[in-house]
Amino acid sequence: MSTTALPDSMQALILNSTSEPPIVQTVPVPQVTPGTAIVRVLVANIISYTRHIYNGDRKYPFPTPLIPGSSAIGRIVSLPSDATRLQLNDLVFIDCIVRSRDEPTDIFLAAIVEGGTPGSAKLMRDVYRDWTYAEYCRAPIENLIPLNERTLLGSPKEGGLGYTTHDLAYLAAILVPYGGLRGIRLEAGETVVVAPATGPFGGAAVLCALAMGARVLALGRNTASLAKLKERAPYTERLYTVPLTNDPATDLAALQQYGEIDIFFDIGPPEAAKSTHIKTCILSLRHGGRVSLMGGYHEDIPVPHRVIMHRNLTLKGKWMCERDDIFAMLKLVETGMLPLGKKGGVEVTAHSSMPALSR
Ligand SMILES: NC(=O)c1ccc[n+]([C@@H]2O[C@H](COP(=O)([O-])OP(=O)(O)OC[C@H]3O[C@@H](n4cnc5c(N)ncnc54)[C@H](OP(=O)(O)O)[C@@H]3O)[C@@H](O)[C@H]2O)c1
Hints:
Layout: E1 2-3, E2 9-14, E3 23-28, E4 36-44, H1 50-54, E5 72-79, E6 91-94, E7 97-99, E8 107-109, H2 118-126, E9 136-140, E10 144-146, H3 149-153, H4 165-169, H5 171-183, E11 191-195, H6 200-211, E12 215-220, H7 223-232, E13 239-243, H8 248-256, E14 263-266, H9 277-283, E15 290-293, H10 305-310, E16 314-317, H11 323-334, H12 354-357
Parallel strand pairs: 11-12, 11-14, 12-13, 14-15, 15-16
Antiparallel strand pairs: 1-5, 2-3, 4-5, 4-9, 5-6, 6-10, 7-8
Helix pairs in contact: 5-6, 8-9
This protein binds NADP nicotinamide-adenine-dinucleotide phosphate.
Domain Alcohol dehydrogenase-like N-terminal: 34-148
Organism: Recurvomyces mirabilis
Protein name: Alcohol dehydrogenase
């Protein structure tokens, strides 16, 4: 084991139950164990529907009490003796997707949802229920992805990209659509409909698909949000916005104006489950087109079976991303093809340090 000097205690957000808000408390700093490392958390994202996860509205199963959290950016402060690549002080992406080592299909999202198998629920409950809304976090070493600090945070004058750690926190959002788009093998030059494109994950999908070389049709009801997306996005010459009216014939005709469409990337929230755009987007696809289903619907969605069958369409579900997707996406980021921060049209609108969370 190698370690820097750590305090005995830290501040952390503690969720005791879904019926009361989380509170900041002083708790012991976690201890390193074989296969896990301790990371000082620098920046942790807040997902748009975080409140609805932790107040129980989303009905995500998870044990309590726990330290909530999401994927984050951190620095390694304590390493177990079985780590062979990671080094003390490495800047890392802390991936919240935890997989059992002896059964990789037992998957859960640390501190968010315990997954869908008895094994994933057990692993979260017994081992990894606490996560990144704390000063320090204990994570499996395979969930700590080293970041090229010199390239990412280095000054542009010295060949770096000049990002901040806040800019890097957006990696967590982009990884979700990257997992879906890579999962259906998006190729440069293809046309992708992203719907809805105006939410945090939809916007990340637009950026991601553009960076992967696609022409993107961004669909949404809110024309002001679509205009903002168009104004800020890089590669804007390959981005087209399409207002969603929820009149199927009008929306299909609007999409068909753009010619052959290869992919529909679905990322709707539960409220959009009854929206007509899901079927419309499927109907807009060319023969042999693909659909990446990543939306968070709580109910079954009707699909145009006859068209799916006749056109040889492929529908592929995707939960989050694979570990190798993270390394592949980092290549896009480190070469500047996938710009972050202002260059990527993304800004940090608010942030809070730990003591302020208790107010
Ligand atoms: N598969 C995965 O691994 C994965 C991972 C992360 C998230 N997700 C899912 O992705 C979903 C989207 O996340 P988000 O944070 O981007 O969500 P969000 O901000 O809640 O919603 C995204 C957009 O949906 C549109 N919308 C809302 N109600 C609608 C309706 N009735 N009809 C049509 N459009 C509607 C809104 O756009 P307009 O008002 O502009 O139309 C909104 O901007 C989440 O709910 C989550 O469950 C899945």
